[in-house]
Amino acid sequence: MKEKDSQSPFKKRNIFLSVLLSIVTLGGYIGIWFLRRKVVFKQLTTNSEVPYKWWVVVTVYLFLSLTITFIGEVFFTLYGLYILDSIDLILAFYFLGLLYYSVFRVKELLEKEFEDININKYLVFIFHIWYLQFKMNKLAD
After folding, report:
1. Using CA atoms, how far apart are residues 123 and 112, in angstroms rounded to an integer?
2. Residues facing 2 on adjacent strands
3. What does the angle CA 27 – CA 124 – CA 23 come to, to the nearest 5 degrees?
4. Number of folded domains in the chain?
5. Minimal CA–CA distance to 84: which of 76, 94, 93?
6. Residue 4 lies in a domain
């Protein structure tokens, strides 16, 4: 366990920017958030349970889906767009499952490594990476 006076491995990040990027990219930034913090999480523990390979796949898919949403009418018929929308809906549930699995693994990691941190599981459920970033910013202070 780390003491309160030890140096935090986290950098302060703007939470408002995280919220804005998550909304503008329709969730694509969430995958980038996990991938950018992979090194720090792996430094804290060798047994990181966050599935980073799946985050790469999901992030690529989300940005492809976002691109197809805007320019899909040029390349696909109406029927093709409906098929892609159906696939997006199904994969959205997998994305949510991956998101909540990952944020609760990060929550457990932070609580295990930093004894002075108290993370509310309900706020993690509602605000996911934004609340975790808020707590990591507190650790960086």
Report:
1. 18
2. 114
3. 20
4. 1
5. 76
6. no
Place of tokens 């509602």: 126
Confidence class for position 2, pLDDT limits 50, 70, 90: very low
Alpha-carbon span 27 to 21, nearest angstrom: 8
List, in sequence order, every residue forming a beta bridge with 114; answer none if it has no partner: 2
Both tokens of 70, joined, read 């805007």
Q: What is the pLDDT of residue 18?
A: 94
- pLDDT category at 49 given cuts 50, 70, 90 is confident
Integer Cα distance of 32 and 118 in angstroms? 25
Residue 120 located in a structural domain: yes
DSSP state of 48: -
The parent domain of residue 32 ranges over 15-140
Is residue 126 in some structural domain?
yes
Within-domain flag for 94 = yes
And the tokens for 108?
């457990």
